[in-house]
Amino acid sequence: MSPRGRLIVLAFGGTGLAVLFILAALGLPGFGGTSHPYGQRTLPNAVARHTPNVISSINFDQRAFDTLGEELILMASALAAVVILRTVRAEQEDAAGEHSYGPAQVYDALRLTGYLLLPVTLMTGVYIVAHGYLSPGGGFQGGVILGSAIHLIYLSGDYPALARIRPIPVFEAGEALAAGAFVILALGFAGQVTAMNAVVGLEVGCAVVLTLAKFFEQALLVRKQT
Amino acid sequence: MILQIAIGLPFTVATLLAATGRWLPRVAVDALATLTVSALAVLLGVVLAGGDTTVWLGGWGEGVGIPLVADEVSTGLALTVTVVALAALVVSWRYFAEVQAIFHTLVLLFTGAMCAFVLTGDLFDSFVFFELMSVVAYALTGYQSEEPDTVHGALNFGIVNSLGAYFTLMGIGLVYARTGQLGFVAIGRQLHGDHSTMVTVAFALICTGFLVKAAAVPFHFWLADAHAVAPTPVCMLFSGVMVELGVYAVARTYLTSFAGAVPAGAVRVSLITFGSAAALLGGVMCVLQRHIKRLLAYSTISHVGLLLVGVGLLHEDALAGAAWYLAGHAGVKAGLFVGAGALLNRFETVDEHDLHGRGRSMHVAGTIFLLGGMGLAGLPPSGTWAGKALIEESGGHWVLALGVTASALTAGAVLRVWLRVFRGAGPPRPGEAEPSQPDATRHKDAETEFKLSRLPWTMLAPGVLLVLAGLLLGLVPGGVIGRAVEPFTHLPGPAPAPWTVTGVASGALAVVLAFAVAVFGLRGHVPRAALLHRLHSGHVGDYVAWLAAGVTIFGLLLLT
After folding, report:
1. What's the CA gap between B425 and B59, in Å, rounded?
2. Cβ within 8 Å, pair B132-A69
3. CA nearest B13 in A: which residue?
4. DSSP code of B70?
5. How many of the other CB atoms lie within 10 Å of CB of B308?
6. Crossing angle, helix B2-20 and helix A64-84, to 10 degrees?
7. Using one digit for the tens of pLDDT, what is the confidence trace for B175-191?
8. With contact defined as beta carbons under 8 Å apart, do B57 and B424 qualify?
9. pLDDT tens, residue by residue, B83-124
């Protein structure tokens, strides 16, 4: 289609969508009303099973099946990154050393900050995962912190060191096994909030590392074959 | 517990394969994946034999819990998914170089996601598994990422389907705000008699995502791009079952949740409009193709359009017909893709003109194309024929005309391929690709690691069996299919009988016309249709514009 034709179709569609959204919004319940049907059903159920955290009870018990789907979406996305960003025939992968991606010229202050923050960030991640059943937080949030923490090494200017401490096969296996454990927990033993938080944390952390690793390789090491 | 095991099995084994595939020999990966899907088929068979069941996950019960609803339609559909997945896995045994068992992992996740999608009784969960299905499908489409076409097709697929999914999620949000419910049945109870505009808009938005998956016109553009580049076993799953699940989801959402809220007349008009547009446009585009995988992809658009008309008639006989049609089409179409894969393996091209006469010695693949063409035309007693006869009967004359036209066009194109490639008929015309199909004549890498000296039986037998199953499915007694849709429609079970004079005559007519289309095509009477080719440009901006326009049209049809 010509750009002009595309614009006309899009303008028609966009106008229609805007009208539909406004019509829909007019039918929404008023702001700050007193009717909370889902809350009224879920709270007594959560309290009846002596849960300290209603959100966890919803995520990992009442609607554990949703979370199962989301866990698998994450795993599938990480696998997709592995498969689509792999080195293909027309490309070659260099060793990190060839590009002098060794310890880079960064300020000592930055390097020191990175190294100091690493253990603290890791600890925070573990804390968020472990206390997810009590306080805001949990496996997803803690996993993201854990997964990003080790990239502080990269920010401190040392890509080879990062590559050494995250062997891809281990993280792949960790991610997949954690997802498998979650499937079994969610379908057979829903409500084991602590265990489920832990495996979610493991899976999310590994998936973040894995996906970033693939993007790093693609951006830093893979180039067209010469 | 058996349902939970059935859902959990493919997912658990998929994660095991993802964790250990790097170290396992290929044979073990193949065996594990195939055994898992076979076991799943057995489990689903047991569930189907046991009759309707509803299981509340985690023992939560109505109110906050999530049900798995195994009625005959959903279990039957899950079983169809599993059978096609099994065939796809067997085909892939000798098929291509594997990356750390990720292909098998993805196929298992895909199978599990489709089963969970049809079995869940919760609207939000159906969205979650719709997304899982989509993410896995994007990865499978882009699996052979060394070719730019592949990445392009996967990207178009990803963008259009994700946009559709956002609309679905928005619609679910609206329904949830209105009712505080997420279960299909619970929503239906709350919405009964609620004729507000907002509910109608919510219905349109929810169905948009499903119609994108079902490739209804004008949401269909992604399908041919994705099918042209996806590996053959993946195309079997896409065309055989995944696309059809979109129609199932529309039917389920309307009949279970919105039947008491959105007027049936408006729904009928809109679904039939989208469905017949797809049936006709898909049929015409199918005839215009020379890239065999693209040709089969457009035939899927056309047939799924007919399926949508079957659902849109909102009549229990037509619904039974749609169920029948779906199963028959799954067998025939998946089988045809096996045939196309065999050609790709032999000659490293799927261009009809380049292949002129070169398939003469490939008797099995030729038989698949001939029988598959018959199946698409709806030769009695195929499942497609029985289903179509029922849809036509409850739809009246114009549906009859639509059904015959769509089947004749799509089957004609397939028979033309059979005549040209496997019989060497017609004058050879190699090399001149239409400018809009630059990928048609380009050399493709074979999907196998190295060229096999002869095609192994595992790459052909599944195709033959699937096509034969599709061709014989019409022999299932109508009462069985009729009873199956009963809990789905809440209407007294019909006992549909496709063996009427009109039914058999329309099947025979479609077969004759299909041969006519094939012969005309061989003589070169294929119009250039530059406008239609320009419309299917491969430009994702066009696709998005049409998606937005489609939602607007849907809204207009429902609200006026």
Report:
1. 63
2. yes
3. A180
4. E
5. 30
6. 30
7. 999 999 999 999 999 99
8. no
9. 999 999 999 987 766 777 899 999 999 999 999 999 999 999
- For chain B, the farthest-separated pair of C-alpha atoms sits apart, in whole angstroms, at 67
Q: Which helix (H) or strand (E) holds A57?
A: helix A54-57
A-B CB pairs within 8 A amount to 221
* Domain regions of chain A by residue span: 53-221
Residues 3-62, chain A: which have Cβ within 8 Å of B?
Answer: 6-7, 9-10, 12-17, 19-21, 23-24, 26-29, 35-38, 41-42, 45, 58, 61-62
Q: Do B109 and A36 touch (CB under 8 A)?
A: no
3-class DSSP string for A160-215: HHHHHHCCHHHHHHHHHHHHHHHHHHHHHCCCCHHHHHHHHHHHHHHHHHHHHHHH
Bridge partners for A73 per DSSP: none
**Is residue B2 within 8 angstroms of chain A, CB to CB?**
no
Contacts of B216 (CB under 8 A, 6+ apart): B246, B274, B275, B277, B278, B304, B305, B308, B550
Say whether B317 sits in a helix, a strand or coil. Answer: helix
Contact B470, B383 (CB under 8 A): yes
**Rounded Cα gap, residues A134 and B424, in angstroms:** 73
CA distance B392 to B382: 15
Residues in chain B: 560
Phi-psi region of A131 (alpha: psi -120 to 50; beta: other; left: phi over 0): alpha
Which two three-digit tokens encode residue B515? 């041969």
Distances (CA, A) of B527 to B180, B276, B290, B520: 54, 21, 13, 11
Measured between CB atoms, does A191 come within 8 Å of chain B? yes
pTM of the model: 0.94
Omega within 30 of 0 (cis) for the link into A29? no
Name the residue type at position B439: D
> What is the C-alpha to C-alpha distance for residues B132 and B110, in angstroms, rounded to an integer?
8
Find, among B372, B416, B394, B408, the residue nearest to B506 by Cα.
Answer: B408
Q: At residue B438, does pLDDT exceed 50?
A: no
